[in-house]
């Protein structure tokens, strides 16, 4: 049998998920093999009901010839509500080997039918507790089980955010449930296994209920929005007995209510907790509830919007100890967490009763070293704790989160002598996504940039993809999400996260196809190009990463609706030149007192019109809608032509002289090949004219380096990445940033700040550069014609005199992919890992078949796992089966002066610089494997003169000899 194993079984992207809602869940698995070139030839899946009798399966695929090992749709008996299903998988490979059965995995269905709800929505009786009161509500109920039981499940949701307790024990580490959805149409239901917490005798149930997103003020100024006027909770406990019978305990008017120690808690402003008001044992049995109040049923709330949990839960995923305490010049006592993070601070304190402790959260210090709160706008981010005075007290906020690095502490006992660092810990909070991406290179500054990208994603992927986590905004901006989604899905498993959010996008879509600026929509604006296009770009990107055809099909009508909306605007069918648009938001070429960059908004809108139309065409083909694909292709051709007629001159120039205009024309394929070279040259000129600095905003920045690298100007792209002066990605790193900034100069070179009104220090949009770093520097990419990395494309582009190594890894649904390289004196070594049941196309840049070795063997010999070898323009192309590979070769490209034929050599390379380059590589030029690439006379002249006394004109001639055209 050999070592062929089936591992990492997933259902709906998750391991053993509890309470799913899909009636035809998708199953995936990975294959581990001790041989190269392993492909799945067939599989068998057996699904049993919760009794685990695989001889009487709910589904048995039998021996099924197929190489599909991800997103296999369940096709057995109708799945029953609240039922657990066990499953196992075996596979056969292309060598005829049969694996053993995998370990048994399971999924459990949630409460699927609205008619099953016996619970009622409850809130405190308004005649006894003001429904508008700020304190969080407590609810409790006690009951007896009375006999032997085998399982217990709680199904719960809330208009607000809640925590659930059984017999004094919190039932889950999930936070801020049920999350933030488009509440009028979708409200998630969580499922909890509480079997181990119940007792035969008396039991107590408790629910803690706060405002959360549901009732907190959200949005801008006078547009603050509340979904409802009162908090409410819904919970239903099912207890199953050995004899097959069942008892249900559900929320109704017999429950009791009270307020407790949480006196105030909102998303923007923080939390106030008075420990003197704690009610010990309030969720336990036999608690004296005489002072508690009655509850009432919310008759206007039903079950039609309830959906089983889709997103992964929000949790504390990491803890961080403060690295320093200091006293500011203003006299404030401040903790430095060492990392701009999102979450909360937990502390332990012993203090007299009534001691009031305040934590004020901030991202940065000002130029004088004082803690800075200006960029929070109206958000307070203040946590207040009032001690009960009974020994060590342990507290962290329940229903709020903050974005911060620095914490100003007031009232902590003994703080005049300094704050004890071991009394405080930062708890990082976000959607609990599995990390799937890694990147590292030889430049520590770029590695810090990658860390900043990841921290920015973690902080802003807290149930919805927000713009920022600290000020009075924290909204699901569609434009930010679409420019960053590919970077996001590389770094973290985002299938459940985006499935949930895209369902909200679809629900929030207007009848005319328009898309709001933010989802869930608490702002009201809609339909800007690049923002509304998230409805198309995001589901397509999820499909590319995960092959999730079901989600693509679910969003397909929404995708088409957005194109229909655009097509209906104005009088010109193929141009989008009407309506409001954010344009190249925060572009540095904007006019004074404007946030909108200089690129014409009609150019941006029409470019995105073409891009999204092409995606919908491709989605139609992927889903088998061939006639619609033809229709969208015709529309796509029309939009491209209209773009060219309107925005490209007869001489092949982009009419708008901005970097972003050129970028979009290139990356969205809006110009033909002949014009493309001219546009790429002009873009490069714009970068050089700006001394290797960008001027792009939210629209142009994500694509800038792709536009350069894909069109012969990779060196310019690398120089942009490594630019440490403003504006550039490493400028913020040089200023000590640990997350991505909203503005290139959120902190200016003199230490002052950009305007308080919009200056987030944790704003992931510009972190979209990560996508280029992974695909172009490390070279880890996919064949876009086959989703989910079934066919991998690895083609790193080496930077001249910049980076000496880079590596990336991504855990796809098939398994771990790796691409890494290092350069030592012109010797290239590339390391590649290809997971089982996939293949990879690898481009060895600058190599020839004769000078490449794999694992010490010459490439022109027969090597297991290598399926094909050919020489191509870039170097050598090899097709690999699964396995680990190490290639080594000398690369002549590293010793050519790689300036594109359109570059201005006289402007970018002086005599001294040329001398240094040629002297450094003289021996390689003479001894290397590429003498045929330059004239021997040139080599001789270099060797004899070593550039001494050569004129500027002669330098140009020598450079031309070395340029690969």
From TrEMBL:
<keyword id="KW-0378">Hydrolase</keyword>
<dbReference type="InterPro" id="IPR013783">
    <property type="entry name" value="Ig-like_fold"/>
</dbReference>
<dbReference type="Pfam" id="PF17390">
    <property type="entry name" value="Bac_rhamnosid_C"/>
</dbReference>
<dbReference type="InterPro" id="IPR035396">
    <property type="entry name" value="Bac_rhamnosid6H"/>
</dbReference>
<dbReference type="InterPro" id="IPR013737">
    <property type="entry name" value="Bac_rhamnosid_N"/>
</dbReference>
<dbReference type="Pfam" id="PF17389">
    <property type="entry name" value="Bac_rhamnosid6H"/>
</dbReference>
<dbReference type="Pfam" id="PF08531">
    <property type="entry name" value="Bac_rhamnosid_N"/>
</dbReference>
<dbReference type="Pfam" id="PF25788">
    <property type="entry name" value="Ig_Rha78A_N"/>
</dbReference>
<feature type="domain" description="Alpha-L-rhamnosidase six-hairpin glycosidase">
    <location>
        <begin position="434"/>
        <end position="777"/>
    </location>
</feature>
<dbReference type="GO" id="GO:0005975">
    <property type="term" value="P:carbohydrate metabolic process"/>
</dbReference>
<feature type="domain" description="Alpha-L-rhamnosidase C-terminal">
    <location>
        <begin position="785"/>
        <end position="854"/>
    </location>
</feature>
<feature type="domain" description="Alpha-L-rhamnosidase concanavalin-like">
    <location>
        <begin position="329"/>
        <end position="428"/>
    </location>
</feature>
<dbReference type="InterPro" id="IPR012341">
    <property type="entry name" value="6hp_glycosidase-like_sf"/>
</dbReference>
<feature type="domain" description="Bacterial alpha-L-rhamnosidase N-terminal">
    <location>
        <begin position="150"/>
        <end position="318"/>
    </location>
</feature>
<dbReference type="Pfam" id="PF05592">
    <property type="entry name" value="Bac_rhamnosid"/>
</dbReference>
<protein>
    <recommendedName>
        <fullName>alpha-L-rhamnosidase</fullName>
        <ecNumber>3.2.1.40</ecNumber>
    </recommendedName>
</protein>
<dbReference type="InterPro" id="IPR016007">
    <property type="entry name" value="Alpha_rhamnosid"/>
</dbReference>
<dbReference type="InterPro" id="IPR035398">
    <property type="entry name" value="Bac_rhamnosid_C"/>
</dbReference>
<dbReference type="InterPro" id="IPR008928">
    <property type="entry name" value="6-hairpin_glycosidase_sf"/>
</dbReference>
<dbReference type="GO" id="GO:0030596">
    <property type="term" value="F:alpha-L-rhamnosidase activity"/>
</dbReference>
<dbReference type="InterPro" id="IPR008902">
    <property type="entry name" value="Rhamnosid_concanavalin"/>
</dbReference>
